[in-house]
Each structure stands twice: as C-alpha cells, then as structure tokens.
Specification:
5-stranded parallel β-sheet, alpha/beta, binds flavin mononucleotide, 7 strands, two-stranded antiparallel sheet, single chain
Length: 202
Amino acid sequence: MKNVLVIKSSISGDNGKSNQLIAHLLAEGAAAAVSVTEIDLNLNPVAHLAMDEIASWMTPPADRTAEQQALAAVSDDLIAKVAAADAVIIGVPMYNFALPSQLKALLDRLARAGVTFKYTEQGPVGLLQDKPVVFALARGGIYANGPADSQVPFLKTFFNFIGLTQLHFVYAEGLNMGPETAESALNSAQAELKEIAKTLFA
Ligand SMILES: Cc1cc2nc3c(=O)[nH]c(=O)nc-3n(C[C@H](O)[C@H](O)[C@H](O)COP(=O)(O)O)c2cc1C
C-alpha cells in the first residue's frame, strides 16, 4: 500500500484549480492501493513561524515545557507525515507572484537543522529519504521558465535542500487569459498528471 501525502494551499476550496488538478491525479490513482493523508492549509492553516517555536526545536525534548512540547509538535507532526509518505502531492497556486503564505508557513516547519538537513564541510546535506514530489501549479498568467517565476526555483532549492530531488512540476498557466486558454492549460496539465500517475502509484 502506497502512502501519499497531499498538501493543498488554495484559498478557493473545491473551486481552486490546483485542488482540482490534485483531485484529477488522485482519481488516476484510484484503482491502485493508495492511502491518502490530506493537509488542507485553507481549512487548517499553520501559523507564521516565530522564535519561540524555533527555541522549542533547539531545546532537548526531555527539557521542553508543556508549551514548548506543543510548539515542537507542529513541525514534528508535519515532518513525520512527509517522512512516512511514499510520494507527496502539493497544490501551488500563484498569489501575487509568490507561493501562498499558507504553504510557506508549512515549509518553514520542514526545514529543521539536524532533522531534515545538516551542514557539513562540503555544504548542506538533506536528511529526508528521497521520494517523488508532484507540484500542481495554477496561475492566472504565464511565467514558466521566465524571470518572474519565483515559485519553481524556490521550490527546487528548498526541496533539494531537505533531500527531495524527484520533483515534478505540472503547470496550468494562463487560467485568467480567457476560457479557451484556461481549458487548454488544464487539459494539458491533466494529460501530464495522467502520465505521472502511471509511475507514482505503481
Ligand atoms: C489574491 C490572488 C492573487 C493572484 N496573483 C496572481 C499572480 O501574481 N499571478 C498570476 O498569474 N495569477 C495570480 N492570481 C490568479 C491565480 O494564480 C489563479 O486564480 C489560480 O487558479 C490560483 O490557484 P487556485 O485556483 O488553485 O487557488 C491571483 C489570484 C488571487 C486570488
């Protein structure tokens, strides 16, 4: 049985195009034996990272106060979910030329020195076991491979840093550029997801 972790960050719920692409990918895998764990950041947001939470990470578990235990549990739980997954699927809307801040807040919990990365004399080393990560990117305009795409370069750097290198970026772009452009973008993204599903759920 494959464990798949789904992370949604659209503020539009079922109308969110990134969420619809995730649903399409999961439907492609419906016939496979897949256990899905879902985090919907629109329904269950993670707070902005603050120093008291970082301090809880730096405090040895046995020495943590009750408050620090609760704070550290936020990141511990998210890292455990990523570690337990055979594959991760992430919805990435573009909001104001960037990741949704909801998603950034979650990623801030995944970068933990000594847990998901460490520094060596040769540079940083990711500590998570590598696994496929599929990003469903939904955008009103068109940015792929251009200088205004702040999302994909950041996501590559971030996920490589924690040890995840099998990254698949599926773009649905031009969604606000008229119904024909939107339909064509969604169709081609769905076709790409269909191909990815063949190996992701195998
Ligand atoms: C607050 C907000 C900001 C947006 N900013 C951008 C943007 O900077 N560039 C862009 O191409 N589209 C932008 N859009 C359009 C979204 O990228 C598009 O609606 C996409 O479908 C969002 O993903 P979702 O449907 O999964 O939420 C924005 C939409 C919203 C609601």
